[in-house]
Design a protein that fits this description.
The protein is mostly helical. It is built from five helices and two strands; from the N terminus they run αβααααβ.
Length: 96
């Protein structure tokens, strides 16, 4: 079942951009990788994951997803404009 859901859902917990940025900056990635990962998250937030697949090469798209998976951050962010939403939500689909 997780094989099929894994193609539709992404691993990691849901964060608002500020919390995701803090988590990324606390990681051991290089400064450039951190900046690229944050830009990737912003792009996905604005344009969607399918658009990001078109924009980034297959290598970079997979690299960013792998880095996010290692940090347990879902590439789909919680909207920062939703004031009453929490800044962190555990992934209810827990595929990992």
């Amino acid at each position: 079942m997780s094989k099929y859901l894994g193609a539709l859902l992404y691993e990691g917990d849901y964060y608002k951009i500020n919390k995701a940025r803090i988590r990324i900056n606390q990681s051991s990635l290089t400064k450039k990788e951190k900046e690229q990962l944050i830009e990737f998250l912003k792009y996905v937030s604005r344009h969607g994951i399918e658009s990001a697949k078109q924009k980034y090469t297959r290598y970079y798209f997979r690299k960013f997803l792998t880095q996010l998976k290692a940090l347990k951050i879902n590439p789909i962010l919680i909207s920062k404009n939703r004031k009453y939403f929490p800044s962190f939500m555990k992934n209810p689909f827990c595929l990992y």
